[in-house]
Amino acid sequence: MKFSTALTAGVMLLTELGGVSAEGGGFFQSCKGDWYMENQYMIAECRTKSGGWRRSRQDMNKCVTNLNGQLLAWNNGGFRATCGLCSQGGLIIDGAPKNSRLQCMCINNAGKQDYTELELSKSPALFPSRLAN
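Structure for Cyanovirin-N domain-containing protein, as requested:
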């Protein structure tokens, strides 16, 4: 519960700071599907309140962690310290939106690299209704 409360508080803060709106549908309904990773930032073009498009970013270090080679939604997770080669996943699985997976190579407890992915659409607390700019 502590993790969930902290993550929700962080998302609310990002919502207040951002200027891009995801009116009634969240990130995957209001941002273009061709997002990409730049260091720890997820970069996307998202619809503004006025209907235009704006480049927005989400610091994924603030909401994703590496736990023994597996990506998990976690407040202030700092995943980039032990993960790299991150990219967008394009498979549609279990009805998830296209391009909704974060895929990375992460170091596990044995010091080996594991390929891992996180289904972002099943972690709605990761995405505020507005992304930080």
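Residues 68 and 109 are 5 Å apart (CA to CA).
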